[in-house]
Amino acid sequence: MDILVLNSGSSSLKYQYLNSQTGEVYGKGLIERIGISGSNIEHKKGDRKVVIERNLPSHKEAVKLLFEVLTHEDYGIIKNIDDIKAIGHRIVHGGSIINPRLVDDEALEILEDAIRFAPLHNPGAIQGIKGVEEVAPGKPNVICVDTGFHATIPAENALYAIPYEYYEKDAIKRYGAHGTSHKYITLKVAEKLGKKPEEVNVITCHLGNGASITAVKNGQSYDTSMGLTPLEGLVMGTRSGDIDPAVVFNIGKQYNLSYDEMDTLLNKKSGLLGVSGVSSDFRDVLLASQEGNERAKLALDMFINRAKKYVGSYYALLERVDAIAFAGGIGENSDYAREHILEGLENLGIKVDVEANKGARDEKEISAEDSKVKVFIIPTNEELMIARETQNIVENL
């Protein structure tokens, strides 16, 4: 089935038009700087790339431009809108929505309420959905929520040790993120091990500018590093990850910072960027470290050690681990990160083949022959996952 997959960010809209069965990508692109001067679309069809600049004050206008490009007689990829069988939307935070579902008024209302948990992402996604409904009325729109995969996390891992009433009244708990990626990785690992998903225990590491690690027990999310929001957990590009909550009170009072200013500090000025003072990009920080920058080296060590702690703690929770899998921009491309995160875990039966890992980028096993736990690189494919889940919904209409 030919599916259009949309992934809306706060000021961007990524898209792919692909076949859900074969995974063939007919075309893809990125619309950037929505609501900002200099907005544009970069559209790719095969080896051809087209860039169009246009004022796009909102995601609705961005969607209109997207469909204009998709149907263009020269560089378009469809003859008309009827070629598209359905549209799948990636949603960062689904609130109470767990499974993929058709868009209706109730679903939109739930997503509106979940804006408090994902204020940067959900508004753009909602606008994107409404834009599609205007441009392509009657087409099935399916929402696939990143938080859905983590709905299986048991209460002892999902809840925070705060008064229980905040969970009951305000649904404050661990929702996690990157669920679509973690699910895809889990399915691919099970396939590689020749087992059913419900038979495998996996530690999935989605490492990028935003990063999370998930303990997958019997094919289901059992615990994950991100929490109520994507701020908790690992050291990330610009996010602090785990900190003592009193840091917020201390810095906020000391410098008279508002809640919004503290939110900006922890989400956009911390992590690799805040510690290194160099960049939020792992590659830049690694290069600076190799050139002797001590703060860059410190930032890398913090990133590695935090990830190592999560892998070790999840090993303890799962009791038996069949595999560890790396995905995301850093997980797929950095042999340094993979090697050093798993370095020293030989007593747990985890051993990387340094030579196999060196320079590896594609799907590959990188565990040593005597490693009791398999280690894989699994390039994630969230768009294909969303396309297949969209197909499953549409076929059952």
Automatic annotation (TrEMBL):
Q: How is the cofactor bound?
A: Mg(2+). Can also accept Mn(2+).
Does the keyword Repeat belong to this entry? no
Q: Which GO terms describe its biological process?
A: acetate metabolic process; acetyl-CoA biosynthetic process
Which residues does the annotation say bind Mg(2+)?
7, 382
The protein's GO terms of the molecular function aspect are: acetate kinase activity; ATP binding; magnesium ion binding
Give the main location: cytoplasm
Task: Give the binding site residues for ATP.
Answer: 14, 206-210, 281-283, 329-333
Matching InterPro entries: Ac/propionate_kinase, Aliphatic_acid_kin_short-chain, Aliphatic_acid_kinase_CS, ATPase_NBD
Cofactor(s), names only, from the UniProt record: Mg(2+); Mn(2+)
Per its database record, what is this protein's job?
Catalyzes the formation of acetyl phosphate from acetate and ATP. Can also catalyze the reverse reaction.
Provide the protein name.
Acetate kinase
What is the organism field in this record? Helcococcus ovis
